[in-house]
């Protein structure tokens, strides 16, 4: 697929939790080869959008198209089989399985065809994981768990990688390592990344384009640089001082 | 019985004072608890009137024993335990420091001498000591044998630990042969050997292996896939009735009906799986519990087919792969074909090897499946269902295959059970059976085949041993039936294991993915009681 073509197209998506509307018709586009960041405050609906892409909860209105296919009504595992991988909120690694077993689970979509090769790639990206291969997932530190979660997602050879708050609860140094790894993946392998972040500064610096979400609506969009320079964005998300 | 004391007083009190005080508290609590349980008892007199029997002496004994126990525990037990690890973390056995004190050569020799002397006197024990003391002597002999065996195992512990599975399978394969040989030497004839082996092969061997197989089957559902199933006995029942009905009505052979019973149980497993797909944990447990009861109630009430509570009798025996039979009246009877003495032990020994084979099949399939995508998906499903789905795993089919595979082995065990008993009735498939199987899985360590086998041996073997403790009648009176206390044994084992080894006998799980070479896993554990 050529660079610049639309990979993920979210149009007018509305999602409800019971009768409470969490997303009020969201439009987001992710093009091939981009890193797109979605920033916003707690409860804005960022993670809900991420989960809606995966069909749980399902969008009540609007369409989600991936590489030309409508995936709005597909079951979650079918969506994953379109080669959309996710490092979900809270990382959700398998705590009693070893690091290797976690990675192996990630490769099950790929039927373990490129298993050895991909495991090496993940270890090159995150050398820390290699030191931990026989340790069980639950005993890893938060940063290592995040690395494992991303590594596991990469094992499926995804066309699109969704990251839900990869910096959550991590030390600044680890956050930098993880953001560097994402940039590296995008640059060398052309991997398309869509990430949701509260760490607006880091995410917008990393991103090609960004969206700002407030109360279930996308209120602003632009390139990462534009948003970083925007006075409203600065006031709401950056001058608070934590990044 | 936690007795709280104020901390300031603890500092000044010596262990002896503290022990005395806690013993008094314990005595008071025991008195309050047992005054109505033990001190008084209702009975019927000769004219069928309800009367109150007072048993104050028995109450006094219980209270004094409680006080003495508490005193000894606080004064000596607690300080001792504080300095000792009583259970080794890695092996779950006594730590070296304790074990070397417990297993010593002089003790071992003494045990052997006791066994030899008592075995020599076996026939004349009753005459020498009277029936009461002879009972104790036999119990002492059993203890000495167990101690001697434990000493040998302790001496070769590293070897045993290194080759556990191979040794275990060899021991199980040789077990009936050794039993027959030992008893033949003991009784002086081969016939006596076969006759005496019945109890050991049937009551202990086959009984335990049936539960090993059931627990390994349930382990797939509960231990690997993490789906709490309280109605597993339903699949056991389906398998048993499938063989009982088809075998008696259509005269089909066991070897055709064994796979058929497995397939039917698997079908019912899928049928149970569908409605519970969205449920987990407590909710799933309740629905599976209800499912087990539904099957049992159908078996009781559908009289036209199942013959209700009376059950089905005359279930055909298993044939020796169709070549020979175990029916004395049959022209192909094994003793006639092979021209050997008639004995009912052949059938039991054959059944023993049959269930051993079925067990090994279960273990083999489980081990292989764990290394295949579906088995790995089961384990991932146990860990995190949402993560599974986002990795492209179809959780619906994964759950259904877990239910179906577990149920299939339950069905195999059920048809074997029917063939062994020759009779099935709904009474064999009550909820308590499900609870026992689940207890074995939990005690053994969820997901661990070796641990579960050991747990089944201890729990089922233990309840069988209770039947042997006739000498306890001397202590508690002639009405005392030790086997009624088997559930107490289960409960005690549960409490002790969960206190000391919350992950079960074998708490580590073998990983299935490796980079280059296999390496031991640090801190890899199966499910544990807390958290």
UniProtKB/TrEMBL annotation, chain A:
It comes from the Bacteria. CDD domains: ABC_TM1139_LivF_branched (cd03224). Pfam families: ABC_tran. SUPFAM superfamilies: P-loop containing nucleoside triphosphate hydrolases. Keywords: Amino-acid transport, ATP-binding, Nucleotide-binding, Transport. SMART domains: AAA (SM00382). Residues 8-240 form the ABC transporter domain. InterPro entries: AAA+_ATPase, ABC_branched_ATPase_LivF/BraG, ABC_transporter-like_ATP-bd, ABC_transporter-like_CS, BCAA_Transport_ATP-bd_LivF, P-loop_NTPase. PROSITE patterns: ABC_TRANSPORTER_1 (PS00211), ABC_TRANSPORTER_2 (PS50893). Belongs to the ABC transporter superfamily. This is Branched chain amino acid/phenylalanine ABC transporter ATP binding subunit LivF. It comes from Mesorhizobium ventifaucium.
UniProtKB/TrEMBL annotation, chain B:
Pfam families: BPD_transp_2, DUF3382. CDD domains: TM_PBP1_LivM_like. It is found in: Cell membrane. It is a multi-pass membrane protein. The keyword Membrane applies. Keywords: Cell membrane, Membrane, Transmembrane, Transmembrane helix. The chain crosses the membrane at residues 23-40, 56-76, 105-124, 136-156, 163-186, 206-225, 230-246, 252-271, 283-302, 349-369, 400-418, 430-463. Residues 21-118 form the High-affinity branched-chain amino acid transport system permease LivHM N-terminal domain. NCBIfam families: PRK11301.1. This is Branched-chain amino acid transport system permease protein livM (TC 3.A.1.4.1).
């Amino acid at each position: 697929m050529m660079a610049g073509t639309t990979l993920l197209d979210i149009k007018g998506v509305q999602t409800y939790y019971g009768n409470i509307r969490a997303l009020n018709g969201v439009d987001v586009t992710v093009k091939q080869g981009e890193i797109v960041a979605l920033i916003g405050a707690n409860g804005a609906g960022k993670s809900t959008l991420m989960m809606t892409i995966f069909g749980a909860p399902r969008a009540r209105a609007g369409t989600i198209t991936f590489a030309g296919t409508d995936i709005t009504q597909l079951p979650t595992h079918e969506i994953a089989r379109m080669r959309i991988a996710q490092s979900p909120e809270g990382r959700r690694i398998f705590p009693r399985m070893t690091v290797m077993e976690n990675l192996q689970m990630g490769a099950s979509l790929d039927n373990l065809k490129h298993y050895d090769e991909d495991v090496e790639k993940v270890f090159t990206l995150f050398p820390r994981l290699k030191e931990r291969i026989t340790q069980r997932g639950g005993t890893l530190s938060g940063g290592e768990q995040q690395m494992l979660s991303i590594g596991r997602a990469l094992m499926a050879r995804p066309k699109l990688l969704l990251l839900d708050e990869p910096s959550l609860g991590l030390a600044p140094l680890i956050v930098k390592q993880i953001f560097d790894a994402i940039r590296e993946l995008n640059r060398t392998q052309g991997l398309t990344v869509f990430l949701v972040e509260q760490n607006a500064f880091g995410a917008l610096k990393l991103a090609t384009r960004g969206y700002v979400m407030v109360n279930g609506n996308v209120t602003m969009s632009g390139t990462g640089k534009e948003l970083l320079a925007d006075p409203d964005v600065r006031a709401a998300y950056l001058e608070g001082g934590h990044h | 019985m936690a007795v709280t004391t104020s901390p300031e007083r603890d500092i000044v009190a010596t262990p002896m004072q503290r022990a005395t005080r806690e013993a008094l508290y314990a005595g008071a609590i025991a008195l309050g608890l047992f005054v109505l349980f033990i001190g008084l008892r209702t009975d019927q007199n000769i004219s069928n009137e309800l009367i109150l029997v007072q048993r104050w002496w028995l109450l006094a004994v219980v209270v004094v024993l409680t006080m003495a126990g508490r005193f000894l525990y606080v004064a000596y037990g607690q300080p001792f335990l504080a300095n000792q690890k009583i259970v080794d973390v890695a092996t779950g056995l006594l730590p070296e420091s304790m074990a070397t004190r417990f297993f010593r050569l002089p003790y071992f020799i003494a045990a052997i001498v006791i066994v030899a002397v008592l075995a020599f006197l076996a026939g004349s024990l009753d005459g020498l000591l009277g029936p009461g003391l002879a009972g104790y002597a036999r119990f002492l002999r059993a203890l000495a044998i167990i101690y001697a065996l434990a000493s040998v195992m302790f001496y070769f512990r590293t070897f045993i630990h290194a080759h556990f599975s191979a040794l275990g399978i060899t021991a199980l394969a040789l077990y009936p042969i050794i039993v027959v040989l030992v008893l033949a030497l003991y009784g002086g004839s081969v016939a006596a050997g076969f006759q005496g082996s019945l109890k050991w092969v049937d009551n202990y061997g086959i009984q335990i292996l049936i539960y090993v197989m059931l627990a390994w089957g349930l382990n797939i559902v509960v231990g690997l896939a993490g789906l709490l199933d309280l109605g597993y006995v339903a699949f056991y029942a389906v398998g048993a009735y499938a063989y009982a009905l088809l075998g008696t009505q259509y005269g089909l052979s066991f070897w055709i009906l064994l796979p058929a019973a497995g397939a039917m149980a698997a079908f019912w497993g899928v049928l149970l799986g569908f409605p519970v797909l969205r449920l987990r944990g407590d909710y799933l447990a309740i629905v599976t519990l209800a499912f087990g009861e539904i099957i049992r109630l159908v078996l009781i009430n559908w009289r036209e087919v199942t013959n209700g509570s009376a059950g089905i009798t005359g279930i055909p025996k298993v044939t020796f792969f169709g070549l020979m039979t175990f029916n004395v009246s049959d022209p192909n009877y094994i003793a006639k074909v092979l021209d050997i003495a008639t004995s009912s032990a052949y059938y039991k020994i054959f059944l023993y090897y049959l269930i051993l084979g079925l067990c090994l099949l279960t273990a083999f399939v489980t081990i292989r499946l764990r290394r295949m995508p579906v088995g790995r998906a089961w384990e991932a499903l146990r860990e995190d269902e949402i993560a599974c789905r986002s990795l492209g795993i179809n959780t619906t089919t994964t759950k259904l295959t877990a239910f179906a595979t577990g149920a299939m082995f339950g069905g195999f065990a059920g048809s074997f059970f029917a063939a062994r008993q020759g009779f099935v009735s709904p009474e064999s498939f009550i909820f308590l059976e499900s609870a026992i199987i689940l207890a074995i899985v939990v005690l053994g360590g969820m997901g661990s085949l070796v641990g579960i086998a050991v747990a089944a041996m201890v729990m089922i073997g233990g309840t069988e041993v209770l039947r042997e403790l006739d000498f306890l009648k001397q202590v508690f009176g002639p009405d005392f039936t030790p086997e009624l206390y088997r559930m107490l044994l289960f409960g005690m084992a549960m409490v002790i294991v969960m206190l000391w080894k919350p992950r079960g006998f074998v708490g580590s799980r073998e990983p299935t993915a490796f980079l280059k070479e296999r390496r031991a896993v640090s801190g890899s554990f199966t499910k544990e009681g807390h958290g």
